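Structure in, sequence out. Go:
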């Protein structure tokens, strides 16, 4: 399978926006909410800080961050799929929403000055960008000195049984379920994207090569998901 272009990825996420949250909940049995909360704990956002949620999609991470940085901090959610942002804008109650600004933007060419943010999160986004180096370099650039970044994404388990289970689930549960919504093609690319995604130690090396001072990868959910924690020295 040929990997989609940036334009293909943009139209995939625009198309799936109306059912994206519903499918995430049903296909992960709600677990994606837990994994996002775990990523938040690694991120350790503080009241008053400015955070960027990159590839924010329908905005879950931005919503979690906003509740931590409020009332003096702010969150900016950036995504290039406008239909995802349209969902995000109406997802949270006003007392959360008021701390979030949504922006259309490209994760590979951010419109922010260098050293602007205390922290950056990217959930299920790094695997989807066409140039992971460039995305990590941009994350590094916009972080303040001492800032931190957290990458949450799928991961290939080391354990053979978990790996078999993951492949079975993605191929035989996720894709057929998405097919019910007419979105088979859109979800069929998750597994190939995971195969091209650097795993654990390789993710750490990739981040270090992009300038980060420290990089630690934690496998969660039986190794089927991973959280990469980065700091800018
Ligand atoms: C799987 S979704 C994740 C959404 C959200 N972070 C979440 O965890 O539910 C991946 C998102 O990355 C966005 N994306 C992919 N490449 C991008 C790029 N170069 N710039 C901005 N957004 C991008 C897509 O539009 C999509 O909304």
């Amino acid at each position: 399978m040929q990997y989609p272009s940036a334009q293909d990825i943009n139209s995939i996420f625009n198309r799936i926006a109306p059912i994206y949250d519903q499918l995430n909940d049903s296909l992960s049995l709600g677990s994606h909410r837990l994994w996002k909360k775990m990523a938040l704990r690694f991120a350790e956002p503080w009241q008053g800080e400015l955070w960027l949620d990159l590839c924010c999609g329908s905005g879950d991470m931005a919503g979690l961050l906003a509740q931590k940085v409020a009332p003096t901090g702010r969150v900016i959610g950036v995504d290039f799929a406008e239909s995802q942002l349209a969902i995000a804008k109406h997802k949270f109650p006003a007392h959360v929403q008021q701390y979030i600004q949504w922006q259309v933007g490209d994760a590979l060419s951010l419109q922010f000055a260098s050293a602007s943010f205390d922290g950056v999160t990217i959930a299920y986004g790094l695997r989807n960008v066409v140039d992971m180096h460039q995305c990590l370099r941009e994350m590094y650039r916009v972080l303040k000195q001492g800032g931190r970044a957290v990458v949450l994404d799928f991961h290939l388990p080391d354990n053979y049984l978990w790996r078999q289970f993951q492949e079975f689930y993605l191929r035989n549960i996720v894709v057929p379920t998405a097919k019910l919504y007419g979105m088979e093609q859109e979800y069929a690319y998750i597994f190939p994207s995971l195969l091209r995604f650097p795993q654990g130690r390789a993710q750490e090396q990739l981040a270090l090569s992009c300038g980060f001072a420290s990089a630690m990868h934690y496998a969660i959910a039986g190794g089927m998901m991973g959280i990469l924690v980065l700091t800018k020295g």
